[in-house]
Amino acid sequence: MDIVDSHVHLYPGAEVGSLAWCTEGHPLHGQHSVEDYLEATKDLKTVYSHKLRGFIFVETDRKSHTETETGWKEPLRELEWIRRVVDGKPRSGEGHTSQHAQLCLGVVLWAPLPSGPDVMQRYLDRVQERAGSMFSLVKGFRYLVQDKPHGTMSDGNFIGSLRWMGQSGFAFDLGVDTRSGGIWQLEEAAVMIEKAHDGLPDYQKVKIVINHMCKPDMCSRDHDGNPAREPFAAWKTQLTRLASLSNVYMKVSGAFSEMDPLPPEDEQGKWGSEVRDDLVERTRSWSGDWLREIFSIFGPERILWGSDWPVLNLGGGGSRASWMNWWAVVDGFVKDNLNKEDQARFWSDNALGAYGCTR
Length: 359
Fold this sequence. Notes:
44% helix
């Protein structure tokens, strides 16, 4: 079966200093290249006989600000980096070759949504200049709202940018955080989507691709080990509201960041495959309540597989283990809950459709 990873972050070592969040000493400080990613995913083919068709590159939150074009320097530099991957023309030591050029199926870039549609058009002009022949792979934009104040998503300029994106054929990757930010983020996101879609025909309504299951609180449990009732119920209620809106998709991605961390990969290696399989099974059981709700609420046509590599390395067992751990957790759940046709939708077709990928 073909696998499309709908959420991957990559960056060259020479540009780590441009990341807004990655200070020296951070576990993810240092290069995370296409070659590193392929090393993390290699068991998909050798052990499970599946094919990694490719990935959607998602912006890595580089240093930026929305007010003036000077604040676009690092996001546009990121575009130039992913263009080198797509063109198969690496700089020395960047960790990719011409053989990797076809792996990137689509690109989601940073964009200054709070500045409104006129600025978005000006930004798009700069993107088109820098992207050159790979501009057709630019499928959407992201402006992280998970750490932004109340009102960011419902601001008139933000809504105007989303309406412009829908009418221009671009998707919006929505990054909210239920656990750390609060349930209000999901409530505001629903209002945002309603306003962005209001009065528009379906084909002009921006596609919203929600990241990481809205980052639910998966650690809060009652004394019986079940999800804590109030936060789980609130998350489920808001997911149902979001799913009731058209053109809204959900990525099943990034959950290791919301769980108790798995043991590091060297311990997994010492345990051997049987113990690792047990670890995956227990993790699947732990995450099952949330996965069941997402699959039920959004249905097989609007859920996308994604890894969030390399961020999932922080809780998923390390760079060599985390991607396969998360894939194996979800794979077991998918086999038990989806037929073959819906499995193909989940693993690849939905991502290609949501982003309009043709590569």
